[in-house]
Structures are given as C-alpha cells and as structure tokens.
Here is the input.
Amino acid sequence: MANEAALPAVTICEVGPRDGLQMARDILPTEIKLRWIRQLAQAGLREIEVGSFVSPKLVPQMADTAAVVRGALEIEGLTVCALAGNLRGVVAAHEAGAHVVAIPISVSDTHSRANVNKGTDAQIDMVRAAVDWVRAQARPMRIDVAAATAFGCSMEGHVPLQRVVDVAADLAATGADAIALADTVGYAQPAQVRATVRAVRDAIGARLTKLHLHDTMGLGLANALAGLDEGIRAFDSCLGGLGGCPFAPGASGNIVTEDLAFMLASMGYRTGIDLPQLVAARRLLAESLPSEKLRGAVAVAGLPKTFGAA
Ligand code: ZN
Here is the structure.
C-alpha cells in the first residue's frame, strides 16, 4: 500500500473469547476456545482477551478461564489478557500466568452496583489494592483498567463528561498501567468520542490507550475512526461482532474485528493482520455456536478489488 510506511501501527485486541462468549447460549469447550484463539493468533492478532475470572455461577461460559489462559500462553508472541472483576480474580489471573489483567470499572455508579454490588468509589479502591498486590509479586503483570459505561449507561442514561474525567483520573492515580474508555452499551457517537478522548487525555495523558466499542447503534466504526483521529492506537473488537453485556439489557455485540482491521488496513495503518485468514476463522465460530448470529460486512462482501493495491 502506498502510504503504509507513513502511518503508525494500531493494536487490535480481540475480546471475542471473553466479551463475545459471555452472552452466548452455548458453552464452548476449552479445546474449541483454544483452537479459535490459535486461529486468531495465526491471522496476526497479537493481543487476545481469552476469558474472565468472574463467578462461574454468574458467567458459566468463563469457568475454564485458567485452563484457557494456560493454553494460550503456549502460543508464541501472543499477549494473553484475562478480565477480572475483583481482587480475587486479579490473583487468579496472576496465578494462571496472564500477561495482562483487564479490570472493568463502571463510571456509572448505578451500573456498578447492579453489576458487582459495589459503587464506583469502592471499585476504585479495589483497583488500588489490586495494583499494590500485583506490584508486590515477583512476576510482573500489566494492569489495564477499562472505564465502563463511559459514553452512556442503560440505567443512568447520560453519563456526564466531567464524571468520566474524574473517574479516569482516579483510576490513573491507582498506578494502573493503562486506562481504556469503554462504550459498554454502545450509546456513543463520534463527536462525543472525540470530546471524551480529548478531555480524558488532558487529565491523564498517555495513560489513556484504548477504546472498547460496541456497535449497538451501528456507530461502532465511526466511533473507532473518531478515536483514531484523536490519536488512539488500540481498540478492542470481536470476530463476527459477537457479544454484549449481561448487565446492559439490549446491548449488542462488539465492533467487528474483520471490519475494523479492513478499515485500518485500507487507510494504511499497520495491524499485522492477514484479513483472509481472519475471515476464515469465522467458520469455527459459526460451526461451534450455531445459535449465535455472526455480523460483519467484509466477511459477507469479500475484499474489494482495490484492497492492497498501491
Ligand atoms: Zn464490551
């Protein structure tokens, strides 16, 4: 591509095995999850959120996360992320060997209480304790915190920008390595993404690294582009756009990895992803999760003739 050298690299973190599966009707066996993760890594994804350490009673799809983490660690060059909802989960992620633990904290206090029975302030205290605990261990583990419901909440509705900035600043002050802004329920629009990224970056600088976007209103890629224009260089997404949020009724899936990778590559950003191989990885999902609807444009239309042309 003519302008490939000119544009920077963008990291796509695949969250399908976590965000995508937690709402799925069927429980995917560990071997299938690992086969899927291997296919994703082979297609060039370098960072994958492979599961979450939450109560298996609450999210039975994630009961085998420790085994999935251990299996994924065998894939060379892959950064293995696991989500944790509390300190116990962070300890479990560390024990399993995860390179990164992702901790979601709801900016909306109502969402936080509905989700984990604790308000946002108590959750920020939990992150502080988690950071202290991880830093005291011999093996380092990156700590990413996601400010969830940063663009709106299915319970509170509008989430004020100042509230997002304040929570992000408190989260950065815990010493966590990176802060992401998450549109947990998919209410964001591009102008809001721009304004929020700017305001949060003014407050916490380069500690803001990533956007986690859902496509509920069909604005997922537009929102990603807004973030990209504001200098965001990492995005969460999900093969086939699977997923949702068990505590946000009506929320549909994550932005589609194939479509995001296509947009980025077409524009000349480097993602390291082999698109045909990535699209082919949908087959395993379609076979293993027959009751889930896979979304995405590139997989249906195929790559245009202009793709990859100088
Ligand atoms: Zn999500």
Summary: The longest helix spans residues 120-135.
